Amino acid sequence: MHVSVLGPGAVGSMFGGHLARAGVDVTLVGRPGPHVDALNDGLRLTLPDGHTETVDVAVTTDPAAAAPADVVLVCVKSYDTEDALSGARELLADADVCTFQNGLGNAETIAEFVPRARVLAGTTSHGATLEAPGHVRHAGYGDTRVGRFFAENDDRVRALADALTNAGIDTDVVADARAAVWEKVLVNVGINAATALARVPNGRLADTDAGTRLVQRAVREAERVADAEGVDLSEDPVEVSLRVARETAANHSSMYQDLDRDRKTEIDSLNGEIVGRGRDHGVETPVNETLTDLVRLAQQ
């Protein structure tokens, strides 16, 4: 199996590094810059136990050079999805394409570039941080799930899950990938904006009354929007969000990292998308609207 990772930031590099360590043929496809330059000398991967090793992994800035691929993992920021796919048509030509991104709408965007039957959606609550160019810290373990978004699962989906599991990222195949995406979005809605604005690691939300209340209010609003969209959630999303916060207690959320580094955040595809869809369904979302506006103000 040849796996290409489109967007080797923190999460993409973590996936690519673990797969390469396990002997999978992997190519990281990124934009020119210090991180990609450093990856040419190997990926420094710090594991959750603190051990750091250098992993040899192929890297390129030309998506066509990574073709053909059996699977493309899309790990770019949600607001960059269309642009990244537009420049990678040759890479996508014969591949299953799996979004491992935050937010809603990414699978639908991918379906504009490849047949719907080849669109997969993955979710993970593993924590990852880009410490420096070429250096990623795998900050904590969590659940990882994958499945076809518009079609039935098959042996190719199970092969991807097996490859990730064998690489140390235990991965389950799920029948309802849409629900899995929503469940991850509810976790992000509960954790990302609050930690970014309060400048705290994930664990503070579960360890304090104020943090727990914020998670409960934001997630319950989003849960009502999910219900209005007909999404069948498998667990209580507040309990899941607090559990993930505990499991990744020392990790700084991706939105925290984005604000810390003066980068654009994914607020519009997370809490902002909840606000928009809530408005469409007549569901009030005042906490998410406030969090969205505060993050937009902070990133300006």
Task: Provide an overview of this structure.
By secondary structure, the chain is of the alpha/beta class. Helices cover 45% and strands 18% of the residues. The strands form two sheets. The chain has an eight-stranded mixed sheet. It is globular. The N and C termini lie far apart (42 Å).
List the helices and strands and how they pair.
Elements: E1 2-6, H1 10-21, E2 25-29, H2 34-39, E3 43-46, E4 52-55, E5 58-60, E6 71-74, H3 81-86, H4 89-92, E7 96-99, H5 106-110, E8 119-124, E9 127-132, E10 135-140, E11 144-148, H6 155-166, E12 171-173, H7 177-198, H8 203-207, H9 209-228, H10 237-247, H11 254-260, H12 271-281, H13 286-299
Parallel strand pairs: 1-2, 1-6, 2-5, 3-10, 6-7, 7-8, 11-12
Antiparallel strand pairs: 3-4, 8-11, 9-10
Helix pairs in contact: 7-9, 7-10, 7-11, 7-13, 9-10, 9-12, 12-13
Main attributes of the structure:
single chain, 300 residues, alpha/beta, 8-stranded mixed beta sheet, 4-stranded mixed beta sheet, 13 helices, 12 strands
Could you tell me the mean pLDDT?
A: 96
Ends apart, CA distance between termini: 42 Å
If strands are numbered along the chain, what order do they take across the biggest sheet? 5-2-1-6-7-8-11-12
The rounded Rg comes to: 18 Å
Main sheet record: 8 strands, mixed
**What fraction of residues sit in β-strands?**
15-25%
Count of DSSP strands:
12
Number of helices, where a helix is a run of at least 4 consecutive DSSP H or I residues? 13
Uncertain segments are none
Q: Structural class, please?
A: alpha/beta
> Helical percent range?
40-55%
Order of helices and strands: EHEHEEEEHHEHEEEEHEHHHHHHH
**Which descriptor suits the 3D outline?**
globular
